[in-house]
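Below: protein 1.
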Amino acid sequence: MSDSNGNLSSRLYPSHIDIPADVRSKVVTLLNQTLAATTDLKSQVKQAHWNVKGTDFYQLHEMFDEIADEVEEYIDMFAERITALAGYACGTVRMAAANSILPEYPTDISDGMAHVTALVERFAAYAKHLREGIKKADELDDQDTNDLYVEVSRTIDKRLWFLEAHIQVSEVKEESGTQQKLGV
């Protein structure tokens, strides 16, 4: 996330905030990585929302839209934390695509459970990234940024649970005198 003027992802403006500039620069770089991943995650959830098919269409279509709206709020929260630290928020879609930690969303799926599985994989990677952010913000002694990561992490874990519940083994069924697990 840089141009001919230097590294945008760690750019700082003058500020009277009482966090040293070198710490703010590291935190802003971290937050810009998260901003990219969050923007990408929202777009991938919308991709699932628009393209889901199958018997669970309506339920999944609605759930994906609800999740996308929630993730969109986090985009703003991370960008505003960057600017509160007098940093430059690298928030375009092109910046997000170039810097996201998430894999590209598959374009060859339409079945509802295939979309759920793809989102589970991305939410798990994003949740891991958030926990790494919690640790790094703590190491940099920026408790406000740490708190932001904790808040988002808690909700992302809940959403991961909601998604996984669609594909996890959830019951044991008696069939021909044997037990067979249903699900993945």
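Below: protein 2.
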Amino acid sequence: MKPKLTIEILQEEASTFAEIETSYDEPSLYGVTDGKAVGTYLEHKLTAYLSGIYEYEQGNSASGIDLPSLGVDIKVTSIKQPQSSCPFKSASQKIFGLGYHLLVFVYEKTDDDENRTGRLNMQHTIFVAKERTADFQTTKGLLEILKRDGNKDDIIAFIIERNLPVDEIGAEQLADRILETPPNQGYLTISNALQWRLQYSRVIQKAGIVSGISRVR
């Protein structure tokens, strides 16, 4: 029987994996500039490594995240522009978080022309708890409104000003929920699009300083 994978073990293994990967020359990565291809390579390699040792539920397109049993999605991004996309479910994700944790690998890629290999130098490996996956400016603004004794009308006006992808009824429902359960301060930058565009510069800065954002390596 394989041991069960936990979030704590995942973070330890992610640190080890990042260290190994940083010193590994990969012929299939030579000349590859497509960030999606690099991300797919690294995600598959990590999940294959984990499934060889641990028991856990494999991700599929229905679950939408890589490690559904742990509620963790793996994100791989270049240090040049640390960002990625994720499925849009509802406007509430920008306020209350994505609904799952993120394990973010930030790499710098170099090519060895002589040996025709590519190497991913892992600059940062960061675990973002789901409580911290909302949009920074949106949650900051809402928390300030609540602190200043703001009411439902103030919150609806803010939601409309921020161009959240939501209709009038949705804005009212969100305002009620915010008054009932104020959101946590988020640390992602989430841009509106058909898919959310997540930017990670702030979590890189805050890793190890803010609770819920851990520097794994």
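The helical segments are 7-22, 35-51, 93-96, 136-147, 152-161, 168-180, 201-206.
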